[in-house]
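Recap from last week: sequence in, structure out.
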Amino acid sequence: MEPNKVQSEGGLNVTLTIRLLMHGKEVGSIIGKKGETVKKMREESSARINISEGNCPERIVTITGPTDAIFKAFAMIAYKFEEDIINSMSNSPATSKPPVTLRLVVPASQCGSLIGKGGSKIKEMRESTGAQVQVAGDMLPNSTERAVTISGTPEAIIQCVKQICVVMLESPPKGATIPYRPKPASTPVIFSGGQVRADPLAASAANLSLLLQHQPLPAYTIQGQYAIPHPDLTKLHQLAMQQTPFTPLGQTTPAFPGLDASPPASTHELTIPNDLIGCIIGRQGTKINEIRQMSGAQIKIANAMEGSSERQITITGTPANISLAQYLINARFRDVAAMWTDPSSMTTS
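Predicted structure tokens:
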């Protein structure tokens, strides 16, 4: 059965996950008093609706289920937002009703398919549904995802979401995706050589300091009770991809005789405790391969030396490749630290 039958049949036995970015007030509206609204949405749509935790100005609402369940959930959210607009207008002098607006979070690798050649696909979606669709030019901070904003009547939004689902089914994400995670309103920062103005690291994550000692990056963000480097991942990712000819895993980078536009490769070494190396490698090497693919850097892990409690990691590439590889390695440590402090916060990796 072809994915584009989603629209004509109203649903397929295909499970999709769609992520929405919402402000706190919007999330409150979806949850409702004592959680009644979201409970009703879950029951009537049969979709799984999860709302990210945290004291953040923005929250991620994840909707998972067969396509027809997703469309029902979206319809309920769109109509709820329209109801909120009508209620707010009763206390306002405004006479024209503003449109309902939803923001999807979509892997950047799928956005080209949503836009289409010369903007043809996005134009077609606007004309056929009556909704306004905008794809953000920049990736969301520290992720490889973009915001896709849909505005219009609830009916137009539902039709537009159906078409976006078709495109996402036909064009799956390419490579690893770093999901957008909204940050708390204020986050303490530790500067290299400065004092940490936050609680000390959790004892269980103390080994992180061994890794952080080797980092040349200027700043770290304290999240919970652990520290991670905080470069501008979006710029690093764009630089790394521009500077390195991208090749599939397991293949060597092709040679370009007479063409040497890339910055010269350099090498950086990290020392990782033996008991933490597994979280970098991942099951059957999946995590280290993702890091290699996303950063464009060559990453070699030395064999364990007898009597040594540490392993050497050598990262080779352009400065942008190396910085991104370091960020991704530390992101793995962040997830492990989160699992140690709160096992429910981490999915199986």
